Amino acid sequence: MLPHIRNAVSRATEIYHDSGAKARVEQDGYTRVDPFLIAGGEGVPVLLRPLEKLLGAFIREDVSGILVNSERSAGLIHLTCAHELGHYFMGHDTTGDETMDFGPRAAHVEQEADWFAYHLLASRGVLANIMRRKHWSVQSLKNPFVLYQLSLRLGISYTATGWSLVRQKILNADQVKDLLKVQPIEIKRALLEEREFDSRKEVWLLDESDRASVLEPRADDQVLVRLKSNASSGYLWSLDELASEGFEVRPVPRSPEQIPDPEQLVFGGVATAEFLLTLDEAAKSRNGDPLVLAMKEQRPWLKGAEANATFETRTKYEQIGPGLTRAAKQQLLRESSLA
């Protein structure tokens, strides 16, 4: 590793620890590093707006700032913000970026910001944390279904996630090239019935291993919950708690042979139940504490009986749109209260 790249990786590791991102991931249950929060903690406002050619820009002034193109995917927005933070933390001057694809011939400042971004958002520690919670092995990561779900939990694109595994020497370049032959649109179509499929929306697949996590979908993302089912013994999963939190729920009827990727997701032929969750319009506008996604498996005719099984996780839906990020707005409010 070249000295300037090693310095960028080292700086990213420092920021991961010192900014509170490490505690957020390892103690609070979140799965990803939020570059907006890090920028807010540094007093660097992030403004999202449509940009004609640029993906993002870093502006070095008395009060430095970051611009990010709001008309890109959430994964690219996060990576762009982290790249511009790389310029900030590495002491670079004002710069604009039309791409996030930087090779060995790129200017040193771009290589530094590039390696900083990848090692901030997809360090070995962050990857290991997700893999441990999800019970994924290195072998699991060679499955495109797993790579796609990993990308959602990291908050970066499917392609960037694949190449982050190469940078971390977890997979090699040939393995990732083979994985990327399967595109997210094919994975999403396989996960959902055709009538539910929308190529513009991400599809999160949740199961028992997501209990300890706080997940951060976009407000329009679709969440597919897959749980073990004892319907043959008269038990059904209750959906009342979900409705009270603002979720719209639709059971997804499927025979076992229709369940995609059975080797990864169904063990020993255990029967499963699937539910597709979306946020209602009122819940989409909420900010604040994570929503509780809770379900109980009960015999519906036995009111008040103890549940046969329970499932609970938390979701904090991310709102991304033109304007200052929520962290930047909170920063301004803090500053105005001190003035």
Automatic annotation (TrEMBL):
Domain IrrE N-terminal-like: 43-158
Domain of life: Bacteria
Keyword Ribosomal protein: no
SUPFAM superfamilies: ICP-like
InterPro entries in alphabetical order: Chagasin-like_sf, IrrE_HExxH, Rad_response_metalloprotease
An MF annotation (GO) of this entry: cysteine-type endopeptidase inhibitor activity
Keyword Magnesium among UniProt keywords: no
Keywords per UniProt: Protease inhibitor, Thiol protease inhibitor
Protein name: ImmA/IrrE family metallo-endopeptidase
